[in-house]
Amino acid sequence: MDDALYHEMFQLEERYWWFVAKHNILMNLINRFLKPSSQYVPRVCDIGCGCGALLKRLTDKYQAIGIDASPLARAFCQQRGLEVQEGELPDAIPLESNSLDAVVLSDVLEHIEDDRAAVAAVTRMLRPGGLLLCTVPAHQWLWSKRDEFHHHYRRYGYWQYKRLFQSLSLTTEILSFYNVATFPAMIIMRLATKFFGEKHAGPDIPVVSVPINTLLTCIFEAEKIFLPIMTFPVGASLISVHRQNC
What we know:
The chain is α/β, with parallel strands linked by helices and 246 residues long. Helix content is 39%, strand content 20%. It has a single domain, classed as Rossmann fold, CATH 3.40.50.
């Protein structure tokens, strides 16, 4: 990503509704599918951990490892008291095969040109029964200059995303659209840019009041109740959970 986005993320991701709700959803899924015990604490890796807000939460419950290619992101992680290793998918991750109980790729695959090779590489790192949790932005027709500023290669269609995990030693537990509540607003914004033009992209997370931020957090986070039991047919993003076959 552009360095300006890391500065924006570091300032906002521990309180802004989109980050908070997404991290709560991911933590709920990890805790549901990967339960630590007094005898064993699972080893979880957040690849592309960014500025470390999710990684910080993972360290409270798991043996958490962070990896990111950006020196700036790793510096921000250090400010949060987190030691993060340098690494980049698909070929430069400093971890051995069969060494992890879970891997999180939170809005990472869209940044990788060979996303299929990245998924295959992560699959090899998982122990039998290990989990892979992924999120990506959905719908190529929602592409904007902001995607370019984020250094995205693509946004994903449902079947395009599903094919990434096929023919690998993975069983899909969940694969669904999510971020449903913001989807109509995103459509309106994209239609508006078609009629009125699109400004140059940059750090532009809209400021909202504390009550609105709290409300949006609750609305988005509520999806964690439904994701384990149903598939959303629409949404601004895609989310999936996969298990390494024993």
